[in-house]
Write a structure and sequence with these properties.
Layout (H helix, E strand, L loop, with lengths): L6 E5 L6 H14 L4 E5 L24 H12 L5 E5 L6 E5 L6 E5 L4 H4 L7 E5 L3 H14 L5 H20 L2 H4 L2 E3 L2 H15 L6
Parallel strand pairs: 1-5, 1-6, 2-5, 6-7
Antiparallel strand pairs: 3-4
């Protein structure tokens, strides 16, 4: 890449649909011949983190901000050869290679965007909004099936840690967002319009 890759950040509360939104965006961009490098803030959780007494893992301090910023800035400059990867089941950390060229970066996560606003250049900050009941259902189903968490543990964790963490760290991002998405289909179209304004692929 001859120029820095623009960064489009997708944030919002837990189970609001950030990963599925980023995947749908990836499909639409690919159809336009635009390659996106996806970076998940969840991959930057600290492996040696002692859960916060109030927020547990639902706090910005649980994310290794230095590692996230370092990898992101390298990716922006086209210098990243690998990115961090975090296993939610085992809490182990390794690296995944970056082997394909890309035109822009799609960063998504609940915790991590807070430390990037005003620190790293973002082409757009997108906040996904979703009803609380649907999010609670999604997180319960996800954490039980994909992360091997007992249902009782997940429910307790959501009520005692997730919700306080969202109020303290995630909800304030809504006021800073360039785009607030309540309907993902319409929001995807709105974001693509923003991308057309901020990023033009090479004609050659």
């Amino acid at each position: 890449m001859s120029a820095d890759a623009p960064v489009f950040c997708i944030c919002g509360p837990s189970a609001a649909g950030k990963t599925s939104f980023a995947a749908a965006l990836d499909v639409r961009l690919s159809a336009r011949g635009i390659a996106a490098l996806r970076i998940a803030c969840d991959d930057y959780y600290r492996s040696d983190w002692t859960p916060h007494p109030l927020f547990g893992y639902d706090t910005v301090d649980a994310v290794d901000s230095e590692a996230l910023v370092e990898d992101l800035l390298k990716a922006v400059r086209g210098q990243a050869t690998s990115l961090r990867r975090y296993d939610m089941r085992t809490r182990r950390v390794d690296r995944r290679p970056v082997t394909e060229p890309y035109d822009l970066i799609v960063l998504e996560g609940s915790y991590g965007p807070q430390m990037l606003v005003g620190t790293c250049p973002l082409a757009s900050l997108v906040y996904l909004d979703e009803s609380l009941l649907l999010r609670l259902y999604r997180r319960l189903r996800r954490d039980v099936s994909q992360r091997s968490r007992p249902p009782r543990y997940v429910i307790r964790q959501m009520l005692r840690e997730m919700l306080p963490g969202e109020r303290a760290f995630i909800h304030p991002l809504r006021k800073q967002a360039d785009l607030v998405v309540r309907d993902q289909v319409r929001g995807l179209e709105d974001l693509l319009v923003q991308m057309d304004r901020a990023f033009k692929p090479d004609s050659g």
